[in-house]
Write a structure and sequence with these properties.
The complex is a heterodimer.
Chain A: E1 4-5, E2 10-14, E3 19-25, E4 32-38, E5 45-51, E6 56-59, E7 62-67, E8 72-77, E9 86-93, E10 99-101, E11 105-110
Chain B: E1 4-7, E2 10-13, E3 19-25, E4 31-38, E5 42-49, E6 56-57, E7 64-67, E8 73-78, E9 87-94, E10 102-104, E11 108-112
Classes of the chains: A mainly beta, B mainly beta.
Chain lengths: ~110, ~110
């Protein structure tokens, strides 16, 4: 059973607008959540994380929001740039030290 | 600073052959992970290690074995390769329990024919 779900396989956003990527989880024992970005033929690179005791974390154009009661988090990218076109993975880490990933969302930034 | 290095980058195996994928990190990280990426499936955890001499099963451990004899190296073994193990394999490492950022290698593309 999938513990981390990204229900949108792809998303297209106009350059300069806001991109919102969503992620849901089922395991209430997760205590950290992470977002990774992946370009073709490269390894994933870390973007931003949030602890389960917080509801928001911001780093430049990237903001992650966590709603624990809904078991939902989202990544906001503002403004979206052409270089943001990539696959974005949501991940979660719990007390057993596993890092569990979702299936990813492919973001296309349109000119 | 090399970070996380995976060897080899590409490999073609015949069904039933064995091989070992090597992951080496030079950041003195405690935690290391092996994932496989398949189309539409995201990254799935195979095995991981929280320190030298330790290993644990992930989400899809069957058909794979691992060893962490040295802190800097994490080996993933396929004893008898099957076509279902055709995938891109990624290794990652992280500093410690509360350092959530994991650094990934460039991947190994394995094809089993």
């Amino acid at each position: 059973d999938q513990q981390v779900k990204q229900n949108s396989p792809s998303l297209s956003v106009q350059e300069g607008r806001i991109s919102i990527l969503n992620c849901d989880y089922t395991n209430s024992m997760f205590d950290y959540f992470l977002w990774y970005k992946k370009y073709p033929a490269e390894g994933p690179t870390f973007l931003i994380s949030i602890s389960s005791i917080k509801d928001k974390n911001e780093d430049g154009r990237f903001t992650v929001f966590l709603n624990k009661s809904a078991k939902h988090l989202s990544l906001h990218i503002v403004p979206s740039q052409p270089g943001d076109s990539a696959v974005y993975f949501c991940a979660a880490k719990g007390g057993d030290d596993k890092i569990i990933f979702g299936k990813g969302t492919r973001l296309h930034i349109l000119p | 600073n090399a970070g996380v290095t995976q060897t080899p980058k590409f490999r073609v195996l015949k069904t039933g052959q064995s091989m070992t994928l090597l992951c080496a990190q030079d950041m003195n990280h405690e935690y290391m992970y092996w994932y496989r990426q398949d189309p539409g499936m995201g990254l799935r955890l195979i095995h991981y290690s929280v320190g030298e001499g330790t290993t644990a099963k992930g989400e899809v451990p069957d058909g794979y074995n691992v060893s962490r004899l040295k802190k800097q190296n994490f080996l993933l073994g396929l004893e008898s390769a099957a076509p279902s193990q055709t995938s891109v394999y990624f290794c990652a490492s992280s500093q410690a329990r509360d350092s959530v950022e994991a650094f990934f290698g460039q991947g190994t593309r394995l094809t089993v024919v």
